Amino acid sequence: MNELAITVIGRDRPGIVADVAELLARLGANLTDSTMTRLRGHFAMTLICVGPTAADVEAALAPLSADGQLLATVRAVTPDGETAPAGEPYVMAVHGADRMGIVAAMTRVLADAGGNVTDLSTRLTGSLYVVVAEVELPRGTADELAGRLTATAAELGVGVSLRPADPDLL
Questions:
Q1: Measured between alpha carbons, how far is 80 from 86 in angstroms, rounded to an integer?
Q2: ∠168-29-71 over CA atoms, to 5°?
């Protein structure tokens, strides 16, 4: 069974998700993981599916990008298999006036502590910048890491919180 990573990006319009999902369903592709968002009027979707070959998916998606409004890429990937989380799940939220380097500085603190960012989103509304990141932290490091995050946030002039993540109900 082939496992594929697919990205679709371009100017947003109604129906992109439906178009991609229908094409993949017709090919017998099973969507296992996906994420989609709009970024300042631009559509961005990444998904993992299993089933058809990369060449078959590329050919099926080609009409969607024929007019140059969307770019679709397909890449065969190696399945990771089921793995237990490497650490404890937390959510880091950062908010404050927009300035260069907020994501870089805050994620560097996480990485230096052995934390892994598993999901991250940012939003700029006027001059307010918000970062929300789901992270896995090495067991027993959250309290010390919270202090380092607070110090870095203070240097940047932003606020930060770190809290345990609620378990998924999947």
A1: 14
A2: 90
State how far the Cα of 101 lies from the Cα of 107, in Å rounded to an integer: 10
Is residue 103 within 8 A of residue 92, CB to CB? The reply is no
Is the full-model pTM beyond 0.85? Answer: no
Over the range 54-69, which residues count as b (16 or more CB within 10 Å of their CB) and which as e? Answer: bebbbebbeebbeeee
Question: Tokens 């939003």, residue?
Answer: 123
Q: pLDDT tens, position by position, for the chain (170 residues)? A: 899 999 999 999 999 999 999 999 999 999 999 999 999 899 999 999 999 999 999 999 999 999 999 999 999 998 776 666 678 999 999 999 999 999 999 999 999 999 999 999 999 999 999 999 999 999 999 999 999 999 999 999 999 999 999 866 44
Pairing of strands 42-51, 30-39: antiparallel
Tokens of 49: 């599916």
Say which residue the tokens 């378990």 belong to: 167
DSSP 3-state assignment of 147?
A: helix
Q: Which two tokens stand for residue 5?
A: 């990573």
